[in-house]
């Protein structure tokens, strides 16, 4: 049935469908300014964020991921569940295992911890399982409850983050026009102190901003160079939604029209590993992304770890 192979004689994978879940509660900048020394204007001017979704008690990581999964897996189920998260419901068992149980599936399941770049890492792992022929259908999710690890008195961090989940269903590709083309992954553990969790999330915002601009830019450039592409050849860019100014810097560096960037940070804030799949789900739902279009995903997170995935959607 599946006879599409890449240049190495391996099968290709593609994103068959995608979904997302956002919590019921919306916390606006105006509401946040009632409890912490900030303002709507201060937050928007520095980040582009206008609001964020905050999970209620019943909206656990498992709950949000399960809601995403039910929209796309169908009756066939999946062979593997991979969850990217740094805010799972437990240190152990994995959130992926809990979602497997909620769905009543019999399949392998594990978590990946790559913070804001976690979904890129998880997607690359799923791609490899399909390429080698081990599995045919894989559910890849990014899920975060960032609200649970924030110091809500620290205006430099609590204004930046929100909660949510996104998911994609990977399958073996039957078309050269729909496939994951390539991925690049990087890490620099020496910069671990730029963003980390010690009781609550802590970050050195100015230096982290600079690193994000530099490394995401280099990541995009490397992928384009490796495949003899220019930014004009990419139909859609989906960067990690950390800060609108970072996205604007990337547009300036590569002369990318802002209209080719998928951006929802204003509504969703930074949802860490969930930000890329939520943005992808939004764009797919709105009919922006079409089959056969080239899409470049890129993210950076605590570690530091960063990477990109190039795909023909």
Quickly list its features.
10 helices, globular, alpha/beta, 32% helix, Peroxisomal Thiolase, Chain A, domain 1, 313 residues
Write a structural description.
The structure is a single chain. The chain has 313 residues and is an alpha/beta fold. The protein folds into two domains: 13-172, Peroxisomal Thiolase, Chain A, domain 1; 179-312, Thiolase/Chalcone synthase (Peroxisomal Thiolase, Chain A, domain 1, 3-Layer(aba) Sandwich). It is 32% helix and 27% strand. It contains ten helices and 13 strands. It has helices at residues 29-32, 40-47, 61-72, 95-103, 118-131, 155-158, 205-226, 244-254, 265-268, 275-285; strands at 13-21, 25-28, 51-54, 80-84, 108-112, 137-145, 163-172, 179-187, 195-198, 200-203, 236-239, 294-301, 305-312. The strands form four sheets. It has a five-stranded mixed sheet with strand order 1-7-6-4-5, sandwiched between helices. A four-stranded mixed sheet has the order 8-13-12-11, sandwiched between helices. A hairpin with a 1-residue loop joins strand 9 and strand 10 (200-203). Helix 3 (61-72) packs across helix 4 and helix 7 (205-226) runs parallel beside helix 8 (244-254). The longest helix has 22 residues, at 205-226. The chain is globular, with a radius of gyration of 18 Å. The mean pLDDT is 94.
């Amino acid at each position: 049935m599946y006879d599409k192979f890449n240049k190495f004689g391996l099968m290709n994978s593609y994103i068959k469908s995608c979904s997302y879940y956002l919590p019921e509660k919306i916390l606006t900048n105006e509401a946040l300014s009632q409890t912490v020394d900030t303002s709507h204007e201060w937050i928007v001017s520095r980040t582009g964020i206008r609001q964020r979704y905050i999970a209620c008690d019943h909206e656990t990581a498992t709950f949000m991921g399960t809601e995403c999964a039910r929209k796309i897996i169908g009756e066939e189920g999946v062979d593997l569940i991979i969850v990217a998260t740094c805010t799972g419901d437990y240190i152990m068992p994995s959130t992926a295992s809990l979602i497997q149980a909620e769905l009543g599936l019999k399949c392998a399941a594990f978590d990946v911890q790559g913070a804001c770049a976690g979904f890129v890492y998880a997607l690359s792992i799923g791609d490899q399982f399909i390429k080698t022929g081990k599995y045919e259908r894989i559910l890849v999710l990014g899920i975060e409850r960032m609200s649970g690890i924030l110091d809500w008195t620290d205006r430099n961090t609590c204004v930046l983050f929100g909660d949510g989940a996104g998911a994609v269903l990977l399958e073996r590709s039957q078309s050269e026009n729909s496939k994951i083309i390539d991925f690049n992954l990087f890490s620099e553990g020496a910069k671990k102190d730029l963003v980390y969790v010690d009781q609550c999330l802590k970050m050195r915002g100015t230096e982290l901003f600079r690193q994000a601009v530099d490394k995401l830019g280099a990541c995009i450039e490397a992928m384009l160079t490796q495949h003899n592409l220019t930014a004009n050849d990419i139909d859609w860019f989906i960067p990690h939604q950390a800060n609108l100014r970072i996205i604007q810097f990337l547009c300036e560096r590569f002369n990318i029209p802002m209209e080719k960037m998928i951006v929802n940070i204003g509504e969703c804030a930074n949802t860490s590993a969930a930000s890329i799949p939520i943005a992808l789900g939004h764009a797919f739902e709105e009919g922006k992304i079409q089959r056969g279009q080239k899409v470049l995903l890129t993210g950076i997170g605590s570690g530091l770890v960063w990477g990109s995935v190039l795909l023909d959607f």
